[in-house]
Specification:
The chain has 163 residues and is an alpha+beta fold. The protein has helices spanning 29-36, 81-86, 91-99, 109-122, 128-134, 146-162, and strands at 7-14, 17-24, 55-58, 61-64, 77-79. It has a five-stranded mixed beta sheet, with helices on both faces. Bound molecules: FE2/S2 (inorganic) cluster (2 copies). One FE2/S2 (inorganic) cluster (FES) binds next to loops.
Length: 163
């Protein structure tokens, strides 16, 4: 029997930069981002898909980075909180989170911001209930969620006023 391959060469685009590495077959995407690329803004909480702390974007879709293997990201585009912050894409949300005190320890915040931006992009008319539903997979142990939902509502309302 042929032994299973335990390392793979991958090339992906992370925050607009092409990256090539040899990775272990069992290494998940967020561990790869944190350990190999020192992009530590994506956090690891539960590591089984429940808390949303590891949320990143792959080919434009939000995913749980702890549920995707690094090797599965081969050939794909990955955007992390670092890249999305640097590009200014999250600036309205970041300002609203700050203004509304929507973060305390900040552990959930990168995942929360990426999930919220996904909602704003895809559901610009979202109700408060829709916001809550969209964030239901992102856990926050500190804020009680109220201020987070307020902040997202602010951004949606400001955009609506501009249209
Ligand atoms: S660390 Fe990935 S969902 Fe919790
Ligand atoms: S601000 Fe602490 S977990 Fe959300």
């Amino acid at each position: 029997m042929t032994p299973a391959q335990d390392t793979f060469d991958i090339t992906l685009t992370v925050n607009g930069v092409s990256v090539s590495r040899r990775v272990e077959a069992r290494q998940h995407l967020v561990e790869f981002l944190r350990e190999e690329l020192e992009l530590t803004g994506s956090h690891l909480g539960c590591e089984h898909g429940a808390c949303g702390a590891c949320t990143v974007r792959v080919n434009g879709e939000i995913v749980r980075g702890c549920l995707m293997l690094a090797v599965q990201a081969d050939g794909r585009r990955v955007d992390t909180i670092e890249g999305l912050s640097d590009s200014g894409e999250l600036s309205e949300l970041q300002e609203a989170f700050h203004r509304r005190n929507a973060l305390q320890c900040g552990f959930c915040t990168p995942g929360m911001l990426i999930a919220a931006q996904d909602l704003i992009a895809n559901h610009p008319g979202a109700s408060r209930e829709r916001i809550r539903e969209h964030l239901s997979g992102n856990y926050c142990r500190c804020t009680g969620y109220q201020a987070i939902v307020d902040a997202i509502e602010d951004v949606l309302a400001a955009r609506w006023m501009k249209t």
